[in-house]
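Researcher: Let's run the pair from yesterday's discussion. Sequence first, then tokens, for each.
Model: Starting with the first of the pair.
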Amino acid sequence: MHAPRLTVVVPVFNEQDNIAPLVGEIVAALRGRAAGDGGNFEIVYVDDHSGDGTLPALQRLKAEVPELRVLRHAIQSGQSTAIRTGVRAARGAWIATLDGDGQNDPADIPKLLAMRARSPADVKLFAGWRVDRRDSGSKRWASKWANAIRARMLHDDTPDTGCGTKLFERAAFLDLPYFDHMHRYLPALMQRAGWKTVSVPVNHRHRATGVSKYNNLGRALVGISDLRGVAWLIRRGKVTAVEEVD
């Protein structure tokens, strides 16, 4: 069997009831029809040391879904670390990510792949843009202000960095500086590395089961420190063209 060209990475923490429905949707969206990838894909779930039935649910599915691989953190390490764990283990040259709560629509992955197929080679990140958010009013308000502050400080020309639906080149991602919560700043970090990014409108859905693992205050407090750090990285970054000389 050929190595997959696309890896779908899904970080999860206590999402036992969302496992089977989301895996089924990923398979339906990609099996035999992944645009530009010939249906050749794998799914890598990273369980961030869940305390519910998430891991048994994934283990049961492995017998039914040959594309599914399951990794588990020995201790809870956060979403950014889970994403990086999945990317490092991935066999595909390109990575699609989805949040594990089911609010991201796997049917959008072929749309991102199609956008990649008609984009220049220096576009290394296709970021989902939730134009019609299905969150609570307070969460939408908090995200609106957070995006405005981030855009003002980082100038990343990205309307929505919090969407879990993304497509990016594995090698470009692994070359980025790693830190906790880095997944929220991928457009700015990719641009800092000299690559281009594109925002693509995607679907967003209500959470069917389970509860959000974040609150607005906690996210805001962490975000202030992260923004300062990323702004510093951008100011101190330097990209230099290199050519080999005979």
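Model: Moving on to the second of the pair.
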Amino acid sequence: MLPTSNVTEFIFLGLSSKQEVQRVCFVVFLLMYTAIVLGNSLIVLTIKSSKSLGSPMYFFLSHLSFVEICYSSTTSPKLIVDLLVKKKTISLEGCITQLFFIHFFGGIEIFLLTVMAYDRCVAICKPLHYMTIMSQQMCRLLLGVSWMGGFLHSIAQILLMFRLPFCGPNVINHYFCDLLPLLELACTDTYFIGQLIVVNGGSLSLISFGVLLTSYAVILVHLRGHSKEGRQKALSTCASHITVVVLLFGPCIFIYMRPSTTFSVDKMVAVFYTVITPLLNPVIYSLRNAEVKNAMRKLWVRTLKQNEK
């Protein structure tokens, strides 16, 4: 049960109050969301249908792409629809539900990126034992831990929000329900809950980012004894992952590793980890990876031949 509250719905201010800007944003974000779904779906389909992409790295990449679709779908469809209406509302229950899935899929993504860094570390530092260490059983276990970690992270945030009563006002200066904007609307002292949110959300991002940096530091140290060609080949497999990590963790640390106050720039920063990162994921992993491009080419040729029959 939610706490006793006079508020039954919230009103979003959205990205802009100007109708001309909203119309442009509608087209832009509709195209971006379509690209997110199609691009990440293509990666999932390519990996699942290609025998050459059967390594643990691509196993985790396919699940990351699926999570990206789910993560963006928690905010983008609502944002796109709201750009066409004057009053942008969401029920209290709908707001809490959106908040849960944002942190659920966001938490899974953070854990998956950390697991993928560990996978690259093992592949480069212990190549002879790689398939033994990263067995199918281990991959499934790490995937399950990622999903469980995302669930525990999200449920902890939701339990904190369930303690908050909302008596009004009910206007959220954002385009989706997030923790800090909701804290500002609660009619009670939220200092302690705000600190717990920083410990939960901010520390998760910061600690995971630290683990990722440590993994790549270990890789760089290990590569010192390799040839120049060997270093370039090994680093090329990590470059895509590092790019996605920086694009995701930078905005997340900025948002969740600070006191419970909101800034006007928060909405623009949130666009990066809810829209831009899921959009760039298929571009980065496909354009910078020859194996994925070759598998996509073969899938395209196979599809054309099947359609000709």
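Researcher: Give me one sentence on the second I can quote.
Model: The chain has one domain: 9-308.
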